[in-house]
Amino acid sequence: MVSNEILIHNIGGHLELKESEIVMLFLVFGAMLAVAPIYRKKCLPKMSLIYAGFLFLIYGYVFTLLKDIFYYGLFNLLEHVSYAISGVVFAAGCLRLLQGGEDEFNSGH
């Protein structure tokens, strides 16, 4: 059976990081970079919550990787809090965009 894990040697032994966690961090970061030009051009002024949602997703993935290296309990808590905040912020951002209607999409032109 092929393992999905990369072994990283640490002072106290070894720890295991899943490749999928690293890949997801890069994918979310890439998605955020794709949204950044829209946010910067202010085509969608109310897009700031969506952008903040991506930031909290990135924080969550970073904490996911850090919990295997340092202070498991602390980073595990921060990971789950970040994901929860991300979900709430994304929902608020979607609601804000829906309430803006067509004018929100045309405001940057």
Description:
By secondary structure, this protein is mostly helical. The chain contains three helices and two strands, in the order E-E-H-H-H. The protein has one domain. Helix content is 71%, strand content 11%. Helix 1 runs antiparallel to helix 2 and helix 2 packs antiparallel against helix 3. The longest helix has 35 residues.
Helices and strands, in order, run as: EEHHH
Distance, first to last CA: 54 Å
How many strands appear in the DSSP assignment? 2
Total helical elements = 3
What's the pLDDT, averaged over the residues? Answer: 75
User: Helical content, roughly?
Assistant: over 70%
Query: For the report, how would you describe the main beta sheet?
Result: 2 strands, antiparallel
Radius of gyration: 18 Å
**Count of discrete structural domains:** 1
Enumerate the spans where pLDDT stays under 50 for 5 or more consecutive residues.
1-11
The spatial strand order of the largest sheet comes to 1-2
Q: Beta fraction of the residues?
A: 5-15%
Q: By helix and strand content, what is the structural category? A: mainly alpha
Overall geometric form? elongated
Question: What can be said about this structure in brief?
Answer:
This protein has three helices and two strands. It is mostly helical and 109 residues long.
Set down the secondary structure blueprint.
Layout: E1 5-10, E2 13-18, H1 19-41, H2 48-66, H3 72-106
Antiparallel strand pairs: 1-2
